[in-house]
């Protein structure tokens, strides 16, 4: 499928839910993609093409980053590493705190899975403020990984997430921008 066709198909499929989970948020629901196996395959094809021969590992961010991240890794025949929310992983792991609108959160990654010098794709379904993705990239760097690429299905342009990722000097790809 040509990319423009993929964009149009995704625009029709992803549902926008206003004021969820709170007032003022336009929630993008990607779950209808999974009702259409051909569309899912086309998404993976696009995301895998972006990263082919450019990365050694995919790191996916909990939880919707797993839905596509694992399939990208399998398509490229490279390992997949989970970046999880705090408290889910058994030790040993490393954590990285980041700020939320109110308060802070932390993500964690098992140590010993990522090898120093490996080129990493960090993948999530959606880039909003970039806070989560930035924390994931810092976590990868803490372990000696090279943040080479970021990919998303969707980037919300108004929130300037991409600005925040510039310091990593990595390629950024999204299929859809809103
Ligand atoms: P951020 O750290 O602000 O870039 O937020 C990114 C994370 O929050 C991603 O894992 C998204 O799945 C989720 N997220 C943020 N905003 C939205 C939204 N409008 N619709 C769906 N998911 C969102």
UniProtKB/TrEMBL annotation:
<keyword id="KW-0660">Purine salvage</keyword>
<dbReference type="GO" id="GO:0003999">
    <property type="term" value="F:adenine phosphoribosyltransferase activity"/>
</dbReference>
<keyword id="KW-0808">Transferase</keyword>
<keyword id="KW-0328">Glycosyltransferase</keyword>
<dbReference type="InterPro" id="IPR000836">
    <property type="entry name" value="PRTase_dom"/>
</dbReference>
<protein>
    <recommendedName>
        <fullName>Adenine phosphoribosyltransferase</fullName>
        <ecNumber>2.4.2.7</ecNumber>
    </recommendedName>
</protein>
<comment type="function">
    <text>Catalyzes a salvage reaction resulting in the formation of AMP, that is energically less costly than de novo synthesis.</text>
</comment>
<dbReference type="InterPro" id="IPR029057">
    <property type="entry name" value="PRTase-like"/>
</dbReference>
<dbReference type="Pfam" id="PF00156">
    <property type="entry name" value="Pribosyltran"/>
</dbReference>
<feature type="domain" description="Phosphoribosyltransferase">
    <location>
        <begin position="36"/>
        <end position="145"/>
    </location>
</feature>
<comment type="subunit">
    <text>Homodimer.</text>
</comment>
<dbReference type="GO" id="GO:0006166">
    <property type="term" value="P:purine ribonucleoside salvage"/>
</dbReference>
<dbReference type="GO" id="GO:0005737">
    <property type="term" value="C:cytoplasm"/>
</dbReference>
<dbReference type="InterPro" id="IPR005764">
    <property type="entry name" value="Ade_phspho_trans"/>
</dbReference>
<comment type="similarity">
    <text>Belongs to the purine/pyrimidine phosphoribosyltransferase family.</text>
</comment>
<dbReference type="GO" id="GO:0006168">
    <property type="term" value="P:adenine salvage"/>
</dbReference>
<dbReference type="GO" id="GO:0044209">
    <property type="term" value="P:AMP salvage"/>
</dbReference>
<dbReference type="GO" id="GO:0002055">
    <property type="term" value="F:adenine binding"/>
</dbReference>
<dbReference type="GO" id="GO:0016208">
    <property type="term" value="F:AMP binding"/>
</dbReference>
<keyword id="KW-0963">Cytoplasm</keyword>
<comment type="pathway">
    <text>Purine metabolism; AMP biosynthesis via salvage pathway; AMP from adenine: step 1/1.</text>
</comment>
<dbReference type="InterPro" id="IPR050054">
    <property type="entry name" value="UPRTase/APRTase"/>
</dbReference>
